[in-house]
Amino acid sequence: MKNYVVVAALCLCCFGLLAQNNIEFKASNFKEDKEAFKTAVEHIKKGDEFRDAGNEAIYSILNPKKNFKQALQNYLLAQEFNPKNAELNFKIGNCYLYTNNKHKALEFLQRAVQLDAEVDPFIDFYLGMAYQLEMDWNQAIKYYKNFQASSRSKQIESLGRMLSKRISECKYGITIAADKKRVWVDNVEEVNSSLDDFSPCVSMDGSMLMFTSNRDNGKPSADGFEWDQDIYVSYLEDGKFTGPKNMGPEINTEGNETTGMLSYDGTKLLLFKEEDGQYDIYESRLKGSKWVTMVSFSPQINTKDNQTFCSFNANEKKLYYINDRKKGEGNYGYDIYFSQVMDKKTRKYEFPNSAGQKVNTKFNEGSVYMHPKGDLMFFSSEGHNSIGGYDIFVSKRKQGQWSEPENLGWPINTPYDDHFFALTASEKYAYIASNRKGGKGGMDLYKITFWGPEKFHQIDTEDYLLASIANPITDVRIEKSVEVNRKSLTVFKGKTIDAITKEPVEAKIEISDNSTGRVIQTFSTNSATGKFLLSLNSGKNYGIAVKAKDYLFHSENFDIPKNSEYNLIDKEIELKNIAVGSKIALRNVFFDVGKSTLRPESSAELDRLVKLMKDVSSLKVELSGHTDNRGSESLNKKLSEDRAKAVVAYLKGKGIAEGRLVAVGYGSEYPIASNKTSEGRQENRRTEFKIQAN
């Protein structure tokens, strides 16, 4: 029996050796398919050109652009012809490591080693990267050190700082992964596609999500290699986001557009787009129900360099953005800059300044988001104590300087690329993009849910008292209180509407600091919907004034104590129209059929009118009754007059002086719709009030 086992093992071993034979791309190996062989070799040559260009950019800490994607497109065609070539498998693995499908690299690199253990001098380096992605930190370090020990100095030198950086990342990874943060990280499946979905922008209340995607939109990119990048929007309904909707031609052009930031009030969208091979920053504003065509920033910001991911600061007086200016802190790649506004109307800004050495590194900074608190900067970077690829960091503004950035930790950050942090005002949810393993494909959007600080179990009171009797507590010193430095937001959202018609009204909102009387911010509610959204920091007493032409002034007060918790206020602000001649139909005033008796369900509408009359004591109005044209005109006129008088009687009964009220019956004299249809006749049967004096 033992001999049979040995023979079987030998057979399996021989079969394995045969299965793992490296088949070289030589004409002699493919005599029966010469044309296909030539085509495959051509694909490899084209792929090599793109791969070489990509690697050169990576080693110089520059953007490899689409070089690795285009290399893969060629290599994979050759792979179909001959999947058992060690060198080709190695090249494919190399390329995947620098795409948004990094997780595919390990399979090809392992296959390359199986076919030829000495396939390439860089095999250990790339295997180290592949195992790092798997969070197999020790295995990754082993391969990196193998490469370090066996490679010639020129090979190590060609990697620049990469090798030592990768080893450091693995060491950070061991520490950071051991301290799992109290969060959930979930794929937002309903908005993601099999291609790249990234750069999320979320409204302060978390109800709207904008992002960029290169999914199939019917518009091939300029190079014809993939689809054009467009901006999409989705809305939160019943705990899930709706299917993404393309934002249309006002935002999306024939070129690539990429989201940067949705302003805190939800009315401005920062984005950047490519023109003639250069990226510049633009702004689009929400006018009514449409986002208007984007406007460029001043030449102080949009220079001959590339300006990309961007964010306003809390009061929108500074713009932070990513720039590849050659004189940055890193002298390589992309750094974070900011520019101060000089004149908002002309959109003139000062020349840019670096965010400083504590933020910018010798490696690439990838995106930036300024939280409305004003003192927090979230950004992605390949530098600092990243555990691989881009990680997300936070830095706090202290005494005019940005603090040493803190890694947000695992599982927010992984050895993959984790980018584009956007936080809701409640600070309970954030959205990022990542090409981590397990997504739908490419970059995907992920939702982070923060659990909050760990809660300790309370000691049972009875047990505590029993224990204290047995072992009396002798140290009764009172520890000094610990001040929690919390600075949460209150989100005030809602819409401005006409107090009687309930139709949206575009209004101007001024936010003042009541302690100083200074106006902090001014903006307008949406002209189509009347909607608004604003965020208020704790520690102030705010006065909020709402003004609209021909309407009464409306005010709100929010006294938000320091260290208060997050709060969401959703409110309709009813504005009272006082323009002389204004005529409003009271659609919710009802009478019994053919009579002038008010029905009980009329009370709510009439009580609103009572309140208006009491708020504006000088107001004088005409109450008029109207009918359709059925029946005799004399009866219609009397019925309409009696109904108008019934409304006046109701108002008098609520304390409105008779001298301020006039009752008139117009019968069918002033129709507002056709009397030929039942719907039209229903429209014509109405009660109106008209402002005669104010």
- Estimate the global geometry from the Cα principal axes: elongated
What profile does the largest beta sheet have? Answer: 5 strands, antiparallel
CATH architecture of the largest domain: 6 Propeller
SS-based class: alpha+beta
CATH topology of the largest domain: Neuraminidase
Identify the CATH class of the largest domain: Mainly Beta
Give the averaged pLDDT, no decimals: 86
Total helical elements: 13
Rg calc: 34 Å
Provide the β-strand percentage band. 25-35%
Number of strands: 35
A few lines on this structure:
The chain has 13 helices and 35 strands. It is an alpha+beta fold. It starts with a helix and ends with a strand.
Can you give a write-up of this model?
The N terminus is likely disordered. The protein has 694 residues and is of the alpha+beta class. The radius of gyration is 34 Å and the shape is elongated. The protein has 13 helices and 35 strands. The termini are far apart. Helix 2 runs antiparallel to helix 3 and helix 4 runs antiparallel to helix 5. It is 26% helix and 29% strand. It folds into four domains: 155 residues, Serine Threonine Protein Phosphatase 5, Tetratricopeptide repeat, CATH 1.25.40.10; 268 residues, 6 Propeller (Neuraminidase), CATH 2.120.10.30; 87 residues, Immunoglobulin-like (Sandwich); 111 residues, 60s Ribosomal Protein L30, Chain: A (2-Layer Sandwich). Strands 2, 3, 4, 5 and 6 form a five-stranded antiparallel sheet that branches. Strands 7, 8, 9, 10 and 11 form a five-stranded antiparallel sheet that branches. Strands 12, 13, 14, 15 and 16 form a five-stranded antiparallel sheet that branches. Strand 4 and strand 5 form a beta hairpin.
